[in-house]
Amino acid sequence: MHFEHAGIATENARELAELYTDLFGIQNVHEEEFDGMRIIFLDCGNGYFELLEPFEDGTIAQYLERNGPGIHHLALRTDDIEGALETAREHDVRLIDEEPRPGAWGHTVAFLHPSDTGGILLELVEH
Questions:
Q1: How many whole angstroms separate alpha carbon 93 and alpha carbon 126?
Q2: Could you report the per-residue pLDDT of 13-40, keeping only the tens digit for each?
Q3: Average pLDDT of 58-63?
């Protein structure tokens, strides 16, 4: 496993991307509309900032309503998402996604429940 990205909920992904580009010299390497959101990936060298701007009601819109902008989740890259999910099951970690599903940038993803992972929503990502 390797660090993949920090998912950041925001009201304006492009504005935040410009700020981070100016502040940190990092580059926008991918942008798409997926699952009712604008998603922008900024390359930090050893992982990404994934900026999540909702267009419609859904998980990120609800997160913003409850918590305001900020870190929504952390993601770990794996070469074997099925095996990682099985390991999580063996450790009695609740899965939000029992089976891997399509995610942004063409990746396969699955989320682990924060109540069993130290209060952090963790995403597994397979390229």
A1: 19
A2: 999 999 999 999 999 999 999 999 999 9
A3: 97
Token reading at 110: 């699955």
User: Are the beta carbons of 112 and 94 closer than 8 angstroms?
Assistant: yes
What's the average model confidence in pLDDT over 118-122?
Answer: 98
Helix (H, G, I), strand (E, B) or coil at 64: helix
Please give the domain boundaries of the chain with CATH numbers for all domains: 2-126 (3.10.180.10)
Supply angle C-alpha 83, 33, 126, rounded to 5.
15
What is the rounded distance in angstroms from the CA atom of residue 111 to the CA atom of residue 123? Answer: 4
Pairing status of strand 122-126 against strand 108-112: antiparallel
